[in-house]
Structures are given as structure tokens and as C-alpha cells.
Design brief:
Radius of gyration: 32 Å
Largest sheet: 12 strands, mixed
Oligomer: single chain
Order of helices and strands: HHEHHEEEEHEHEHEEEEEHEHEHHHHH
Shape: elongated
Number of strands: 14
Length: 409
């Protein structure tokens, strides 16, 4: 028998038992679907996350009382007990870092409604209190009017700059500058509008109203408010020096002694991405464990199905051996059947996992990706399962005595 004939016979045997083959492949598909689906979603989140981080610039870092990412309940409780970065501390730090780069102070409050005449937004507007450096630090371009200026912040003027989504809702086809809008029960004069940035992680980046930080604090109070600080160094080479200067200045502002640990966090784009990667690795490990259990169970199913196939085809094996088929021909045929079952199931699982993962990515406005590495690894693992769990049935078929096999009914 030539190799092509062996392959043809293997596929013909699978086609003759379509339901059994399909159910066996389904088990493999479920295991592969789990890991590929999770890895596709993680890849999409990571791509979108890196894109959103890159918008802030490689020469930017943030100071806050808590890390940018924290999923541990114990850590969140510990960080929550740290003293807030109040406005006086933030202002003093901004003065100390005057030569290190542009410093942006920010605080925000969600769930606000913006209104103009009879037009009103949904109660999902984010009211941001910041300073003249907000647009630059967050990479927003001015679409019309002007940005906040230091005088607005110093005097706490009731002015605002509208995000693109709010501006289009309240002023469709109209000029917003000079108009008075009402946000969360307070009146503001619009001095400018920002260009649209689109959505990130399923949330709009343009659904906000920007007002001077001092005005924000006048309305909502200063107690229990912690201000986030973004520092933009002149360039990437100056980033490390700016960070060291910022840490020293922040320790001075917070009144820490040399032996005291920092009661604040410094986060760069790289550190935030590294924290995300650590979380993603945990999710990936969990999905791999679940998939491994499912694949082992599916492998046992493949072996059982192949043993049943050997029993059903004992007389066929005897006939083939009696007319000259060698042991290795029988071994290869049954091994190919097991590998084909596993690989077909693996291909279906990869396709379903990629499709499902990317459907989730589209729903949440994440990047659409194809996890080539994990897809290749999934198919390799499926091939290994076919060989591992198909070897014993194939060996059993190849070891049958042709005389005894011919007598089998």
C-alpha cells in the first residue's frame, strides 16, 4: 500500500461514521475554543490598551495615591487608607516641577447630565476638573474656541470646554462658543470644543465636560478628594530624571521622612502595561488549565472511539493483512484517523474561538486580532493528542492475528 492509499482509507473510515466522528471532534473543539477565545480577547484588549497608553506619550508618567491598575482587594483597601493628594499638595508639586515638564492636575466625576435649552445628554457625562495642560497631556486637539488658561484656574471661572460627543449632542451644526450650558445643576460658559478621539475599551473618550479644577472643587468640595497628577517630560531621555525629581518633590510635599515608604504611586505607560500583562497571564493560565482538562477528557474519548472502531473492523483488518498489508500500514491508518479527528476538531475550535473572541472585541470596541501563536500551539497540541491517545488503538489493530481476525464475526 502506498501512503496516499493509507490516507484515503483513513478518511473514508471517518466519513463512514459521521455522527461518531462529529461528536468526538466536538469534544476537542470545546477545549480549543476555550483557550483560543480567551487568548483572542486578551490580544484585542492588549492591543487596544497599548494604543490608548501610547496616546499619552512615552515621555509621560502619572502620580496618584493608588496604582493605575489593582485587582487585589487587600491592595485596594491598603491604598484607600492612604492620605489623599489634596489641591494644596498638588499645586505645590506643580510649582516644584516647573522645570521638569508640563504638569496636569485632574479630578473627575461621572454620571452628570449636560443641557442646553431643550437639549439634554444622557446622565453619563464625565465632568473633569483640570488645568491648562489637560488637553496636551491627554493628546486632545482643539476643534474650536480656546483651551482653559491659567487665569481660568486661578480665578475658578465658570467656563468649560466640551468633548466632541457632548458638543455634537447639544450643538448639532451650531457654534458652541459663548453659549451657556448646564452641567450637573451648574451653569458654565463654553469657551472651546475638542476634536473627537473615539472609543476605547467600549467607552467614549469624548463624552466629558472640562472645567477649571478650582471651580470643580468649589462645587463639590475638597474633603475626600484625591487629585491625579500627570507629568509630561520634555522628551523620552528626560523621563527618568523627571521621575526622580517628581518622587523627591512629592515626598517633600507629603512631609515624608527619609525612612518612610512612599505613600503614593508613580506609573509610566510601561509599568501599567506590565501590570496588565501580569493579570493577562493569570487569565491565560486559568484558561489553559480548563482547556487541558477538557482536552484530556476529549483524548480519552478519541481513544475509546478508536478502540470501538478496531473492534468493529476486526474482520476488515484480517482481510487486509491476508492480502499483504503490513503492520505499519494498519498502524499508520488508525493513527491517521485519530490525528485527523483531533486536528479537525482543533481547526473548528480555533475558528470558533477566533470568531467568538473577535465578536466580543467588536462589541466592546477593542482591536480585532488573530492569535497566530496560540492557534498554531492549539493545532500542535491537537495533533499530539491524536498521536498520544490514538497510538494504543492503532497498535492493537496492527497486532491482530490475521487468522483470528478473519474468524471474527
Amino acid at each position: 500500500m502506498n501512503p496516499l492509499e493509507t490516507i484515503r482509507l483513513a478518511f473514508a473510515a471517518l466519513a463512514a461514521n459521521k455522527l461518531r466522528s462529529a461528536l468526538t471532534m466536538l469534544g476537542i473543539s470545546v477545549g480549543i475554543f476555550t483557550v483560543i477565545g480567551v487568548m483572542t480577547v486578551i490580544s484585542g484588549i492588549r492591543t487596544s490598551f497599548e494604543t490608548s497608553m501610547s496616546v499619552l506619550g512615552a515621555n509621560t508618567f502619572q502620580l496618584d495615591k493608588a496604582p493605575a491598575l489593582s485587582f487585589s482587594r487587600a491592595d485596594r483597601s491598603r491604598f484607600a487608607n492612604r492620605p489623599d493628594i489634596d489641591y494644596a499638595q498638588a499645586q505645590r508639586l506643580k510649582g516644584l516641577l516647573a522645570g521638569a515638564g508640563d504638569v496636569c492636575l485632574k479630578i473627575s466625576r461621572g454620571g452628570a447630565t449636560a443641557a442646553y435649552l431643550d437639549r439634554k445628554t444622557n446622565p453619563t457625562v464625565n465632568l473633569v476638573g483640570s488645568d491648562e495642560n489637560y488637553a496636551a497631556s491627554q493628546s486632545y486637539d482643539l476643534a474650536g474656541g480656546r483651551n482653559l488658561d491659567p487665569g481660568d484656574v486661578e480665578l475658578g471661572r465658570a467656563v468649560c470646554v466640551l468633548g466632541a460627543e457632548v458638543a455634537s449632542s447639544l450643538f448639532p451644526g451650531e457654534t458652541a462658543q459663548g453659549q451657556t450650558v448646564r452641567v450637573d445643576g451648574q451653569n458654565y460658559t463654553v469657551v472651546g470644543t475638542l476634536a473627537a478621539k473615539g472609543a476605547s475599551f467600549g467607552a467614549s473618550q469624548d463624552n466629558f465636560v472640562l472645567t477649571p479644577l478650582t471651580r470643580w472643587l468649589q462645587i463639590y468640595g475638597r474633603a475626600g478628594r484625591s487629585i491625579k497628577i500627570t507629568v509630561q517630560a520634555p522628551d523620552v531621555p528626560a523621563l527618568e530624571a523627571a521621575q526622580e525629581q517628581a518622587v523627591g518633590a512629592m515626598r517633600l510635599v507629603r512631609g515624608l521622612q527619609p525612612e518612610d515608604a512612599n505613600d503614593f504611586e508613580v506609573s509610566t505607560n510601561d509599568s501599567i502595561i506590565a501590570a496588565f500583562d501580569q493579570i493577562a497571564r493569570g487569565l491565560a493560565m486559568g484558561s489553559l488549565i480548563i482547556s487541558a482538562i477538557a482536552l484530556v477528557a476529549s483524548g480519552v474519548g478519541v481513544m475509546n472511539i478508536m478502540l470501538v472502531s478496531v473492534t468493529e473492523r476486526t474482520r476488515e483488518i484480517g482481510i487486509r493483512k491476508s492480502i499483504g498489508a503490513r503492520r505499519r500500514n494498519i498502524l499508520v491508518q488508525f493513527l491517521l484517523e485519530a490525528v485527523a479527528l483531533s486536528l479537525f476538531g482543533g481547526v473548528a475550535g480555533v475558528a470558533a474561538g477566533v470568531a467568538g473572541g473577535n465578536l466580543g472585541a467588536v462589541f466592546f470596541n477593542l482591536a480585532v486580532t488573530f492569535p497566530w501563536f496560540w492557534a498554531a500551539m492549539g493545532l500542535i497540541v491537537c495533533g499530539g493528542i491524536g498521536v498520544t491517545f490514538g497510538l494504543y488503538p492503532a497498535w492493537k489493530a496492527a497486532s491482530l492475528d490475521p487468522i483470528e481476525a478473519l474468524r471474527h464475526e
